[in-house]
Amino acid sequence: MQNTQILVLCIFGHVIKLFDRSDSAFWNARCQAELADQLAKTPIVSQAKNVIVFLGDGTGIATFTAARLLKGQRSGKYELEQSAWERFPFSSIIKTYNTNMQVTDSAASSTAYLNGVKGNQATIGVDANVLLGDCLAMNIEQFHTESVLKNFQDAGRSTGIVTTTRVTHASPAGNYAHIAERHWENDNDIEDYNGDPDACDDIAEQLVLGNTGSKIKVIMGGGRKKFLPEDAVDPEGETSGRRKDGQNLIDTWINQKNLLGTNSYVWNRSELLAVDTANTDYLLGLFDYSHMEYRVDNDASNPTLSEMTRAAIEVLQRDVNGFFLFVEGQFFQIEEFFCCLRLSCTLLTQFTVLLFVHRISCSTLLLLHTFRLFRGLIDTAHHLNEHRSAVEEAFEFEKAVEVAVSMTDVQDTLIIVTADHSQPMTINGYPSRGSDILGLASVSDVDNMPFTTLMYTNGPGFRDQKNDLRPNPVDENYEDPHYVAQATVPMVESNHNGEDVILYARGPHAHLFTGIHENAYIPHAIRCVHPPRDQVRTSPTRSGAYILHAIRCVHPKRDQVRTSSTRSGAYIRHAIRYAACVGSGLSFCSADA
């Protein structure tokens, strides 16, 4: 069986060589076209009317690359394919550490890239003076940070958040919440995490009743359980809400908005598609009890990320002053949970078979089954080492970006695509050109067994190597959407990665996003793009980098504007040649050289 697969890989690699024009003429023409495109780029220096931030949670460069390769093998362009954001003219590298951790979580990261200040791990919307779980410090307004979303509200513009997680989860909460513990999503959670619900407002309360949250015009995602009381039954089943305080925050939101304008609350796809967005001032969509489902598992009852994005823009575009929209494609974040494991005889039988085939630890498999038993808890891809599900999610994320691009004008709308942190997935093994990115890379020269191109440095995909042999991925059905890829270090869930992430930008002042920056720099640049009246200033307390960008924002010098994006090595040679050729008159500088 192994020999057959190797032969297939070799034959497939040979086919790729037949249609891949890799001669000098091909690459010279391609890279000259890239160079011409780069030279034609000029920054848009007008102020932005609208800003849209797309956040791929856990989408490190390896995931972006894998998604592009998967798109390429489906389009027939293979490695020459481009993702939608790779056509954006400017890009930057973003540092992700926070004030007390080299490797950040999504909570502290959201404080940085949405508020412009780094905070402590697992806190949201507060600075480093607030330690994890410190309710007293959390209530001190001096320690609160201010989000770009709030800046737009203060400037009289509409705002919205769209996510495939719970709308009270770490990333979207960075837009409106000030909390000392990311898990305090409702009052019940505060008790579970050793807090005092009478002294600390939970995240759902802050979204519906808070100064910033209550002004958000579009809110879409999952997480009904955080808004419903324990005596309220969820519309999709017998599950009840999780609030102990008796508040039905969905009803509260509806009653509030009835006083302010036309509004719609929807909880499934058909209701969302029926909304008259041209005559809707406020829109709340909670489409799942907890997180929304994977793209590969989603049924017709849930809207896609692109459908939610379209509806959000349609509502927000009614504001002639402009809008700010945050869109999160949540591929990778694990669901935190506290529940009992009640395994039926059938499940125990399945568990025994899986334990035999995969050689995954007993405790790990129990947890994996628990994640999948509960509706809304499927959104665990990278943390569960499910690389296939994770990469597939990027397709819907890209569709949402394409929707935003098609519905807005590059001259007045800044669109940013970035990530909050990376994940420990690697692309390895010297696979041939055109190989399935979700398939096998090659064969180990130690155990003579194949391995997948995408693997993890740690996580539940670790296999016990009995008799010094690892399991053969062919025997494990590696083509299953929820296949758990092999990992080197055993963990119940994988950790985040601490390397820098990438940011892509198009629109007004997108040229501010070049070079290497702190994640906390992002809001400062956005504020410069369309500054609230008192936000753009230079003072001795500002860093030199901030002052430089503020000056460029007011009057950018053409020779100071750098453009960067994803480039091949061959392109770099052409760019260097061009730099040497300008004004030189050298013979090798002709267009045909």
Automatic annotation (TrEMBL):
Cofactors, names only: Mg(2+); Zn(2+)
First-level EC class: hydrolase
One family name in Pfam for this protein: Alk_phosphatase
Active site: 106
Annotated Mg(2+) binding sites: 57, 169, 171, 328
MF terms (GO), sorted A to Z: alkaline phosphatase activity; metal ion binding
Source organism superkingdom: Eukaryota
Cofactor note: Binds 1 Mg(2+) ion. Binds 2 Zn(2+) ions.
Key words of the record: Magnesium, Metal-binding, Zinc
Database matches in InterPro entries: Alkaline_phosphatase (IPR001952), Alkaline_phosphatase_core_sf (IPR017850)
EC number: 3.1.3.1
Annotated binding of Zn(2+), by residue: 57, 379, 383, 420-421, 496
Family to which this protein belongs: Belongs to the alkaline phosphatase family.
Name of the protein in question: alkaline phosphatase
Organism phylogeny: Eukaryota, Metazoa, Ecdysozoa, Arthropoda, Crustacea
